[in-house]
Design a protein that fits this description.
401 residues, alpha+beta, Cytochrome p450, five-stranded mixed β-sheet, 15 helices, globular
């Protein structure tokens, strides 16, 4: 059954840039966006080749912008770093996301999921995203960092600024209005950076048994991370550490709601849960684009691209490339898994992927255990995130009885 997802995304207010959600295909695999001054790449193999060549395709895209606001908070931004700085910082935090460390979190995640669902016990309906899919992973990542999970309402306010922003920074329009837009968005984020900075300063005075303390104490090649590096890295973890899981849980429920035949099979055979989650990641890629900048004259898919050019890899489209995925718009939890690009590939493969998968699996199993029915409300449909940078539900009212 392919039609439900393709026909419902407009009702869910999916972003118009996400054409792949509607079953559309690009006219060309690689094209230049003259308005934005960027190259768009849509194919799976082309995207994979870029991921696997971090020398030609640098992760530092901010260097292309002559903008003070765009280049703010660059220190410690793991997404923007190339080797060897990337390896230096990633090594420091990777211990928090080893398979054994993540596995040790399973009882705590189970307990949190149980407590959150206890709060909606006895109700016929609840709003999945804000009452379960958001608080579960944000509490986990907050506890890892060592910031108070009770402040999650603040994190949500700051992240909502990102999720509701539709601003795209052009490499062509570099006028005062564009800089004003960038500065205005940055100012909305500053409270989050100030909040984390207070905790970083406090950890330098009084370390604890948390990730922030390990970061401020860690030494690499005889030097310690600066406060700016720790703050930016912690903000990145706090945001990226929960958005993927939040979107994943909502998208998995939507996939099974629109494919009741699969919902029945997954309920009956929980070994299908991991595959159900991977298909949700593929069909609704939480972060649907990844940026790179060229360091030399090169080519992608036979198209020449010059040095110092911005390249947007549209992973949402690549994950529905028919050359890689037969019948790409079909939801099939038995499809060979983990070949999608939702977590990236290569040296920048998502550090938190094992944790996101664990959280998603626990969340889905517990939802299926608790509720005999998980259906969207026809009178109150889901609403997707308004930003082109994120794919998934912002609100998802569920009927559970």
């Amino acid at each position: 059954m392919t039609l439900p997802l393709l026909t419902l995304v407009d009702r869910w207010q999916a972003h118009p840039h996400h054409f792949w959600l509607r079953g559309e295909t690009p006219e060309a695999g690689v094209r230049f966006d003259e308005k934005m001054g960027k190259w768009d790449v849509y194919g799976y193999q082309d995207s994979l080749s870029v991921f696997n060549d971090p020398v030609t395709f640098s992760s530092d895209t901010k260097r292309l912008y002559d903008s003070e606001s765009v280049n703010q908070h660059k220190e410690g931004n793991l997404i923007q770093l190339d080797e060897p700085e990337h390896r230096r910082l990633r090594t420091l935090v990777s211990s928090a996301f080893t398979p054994n460390t993540v596995a040790d979190l399973e009882p705590r995640i189970h307990g949190l999921a149980h407590d959150l669902l206890e709060e909606v016990r006895g109700r016929d309906t609840f709003e999945l995203m804000n009452e379960f899919a958001y608080p579960l992973p944000v509490i986990v990542i907050a506890e890892l960092l060592g910031v108070p999970p009770s402040d999650r309402h603040l994190f949500k306010e700051w992240v909502t600024v990102m999720l509701e922003s539709s601003a795209q920074v052009s490499l062509v329009d570099r006028g005062a209005s564009a800089e004003d837009d960038s500065r205005s968005l940055l100012e909305k984020w500053l409270p989050m950076f100030d909040y984390i900075r207070e905790h970083v300063v406090e950890r330098r005075r009084k370390p604890r048994a948390d990730l922030l303390s390990r970061l401020v104490r860690a030494e690499v090649d005889g030097s310690r991370l600066s406060d700016d590096e720790v703050v930016t890295f912690a903000v990145l973890l706090l945001v990226g550490g929960h958005v993927t899981t939040t979107m994943l849980v909502g998208s998995a429920v939507l996939c099974m709601d629109t494919h009741p035949e699969w919902a029945e099979r997954v309920r009956a055979d929980r070994s299908l849960v991991p595959g159900a989650m991977e298909e949700a990641l593929r069909l609704f890629t939480p972060f649907p684009a990844a940026g790179r900048s060229t360091t030399v004259d090169t080519e992608i898919g036979g198209v020449p691209i010059g040095r110092d050019q911005m390249v947007n890899l549209w992973l949402g489209a690549a994950n529905r490339d028919p050359h890689q995925f037969p019948d790409p718009h079909r939801y099939d939890p038995t499809r060979p898994q983990q070949s999608h690009l939702s977590f990236g590939r290569g040296i920048h493969f998502c550090l938190g992927a094992p944790l996101a998968r664990l959280e998603g699996r626990i969340a889905m199993n517990m939802l299926l255990d608790r509720f005999p029915v998980l259906r969207t409300d026809p009178d109150n449909p889901p609403a997707f995130v308004a930003s082109p940078d994120v794919t998934g539900a912002r609100t998802l009212p569920l009927l559970v009885a």
